[in-house]
Specification:
The protein has about 150 residues and is mainly alpha-helical. The protein is about 60% helix and about 5% strand. Keywords: DNA-binding, Transcription, Transcription regulation.
């Protein structure tokens, strides 16, 4: 089903515009909230994935966070310079780089929910529980549409 046509393509009501605007608003709020931890919202994603064991290599991290490898390398460089993570060569495959949080990185990871949850809750404060569940369902459906092709 085609929801957009040349005649009915409103730039400020397109899904691309609205998703980008929503993302940018959340990122700006999140960056401000995370400032005391000296990390950005993008760096937060890396720290959380590492702390939760979701990804352990730059490649896995890039895939999970939908970040290109060049940007991932730059972000890992910054996190390593801040003493939040270590990169080491895999013992089983020297081509693979393993990522691990330092103690300082683990401490930051433990503090992230205290900073991030109020930002997210503020953004969805006017949603009922039912609306919030529906938003998550619809976003999931939107994201999964890419894997259905």
């Amino acid at each position: 089903m085609e929801h957009y046509t040349k005649k009915t393509f409103p730039t400020t009501q397109s899904i691309g515009f609205m998703l980008t605007k929503a993302r940018n608003m959340v990122l700006a709020d999140m960056d401000a909230a995370l400032e005391p931890l000296d990390i950005t919202s993008q760096q937060m994603g890396i720290i959380l994935w590492l702390s939760r064991g979701v990804a352990a290599t730059p490649f896995e991290m890039s895939r999970h966070l939908s970040i290109d490898t060049g940007l991932m390398t730059r972000m890992l460089n910054k996190l390593e310079a801040k003493g939040l993570l270590k990169r080491t060569r895999s013992n089983t495959d020297r081509r693979v780089v393993d990522l691990k949080l330092t103690r300082k990185g683990e401490a930051i990871a433990a503090n992230i929910p205290d900073m991030a949850l109020p930002v997210l809750n503020e953004r969805v404060r006017n949603f009922s529980k039912t609306e919030f569940k529906e938003l998550l369902r619809l976003l999931g459906k939107f994201i999964d549409a890419d894997t259905q092709r």
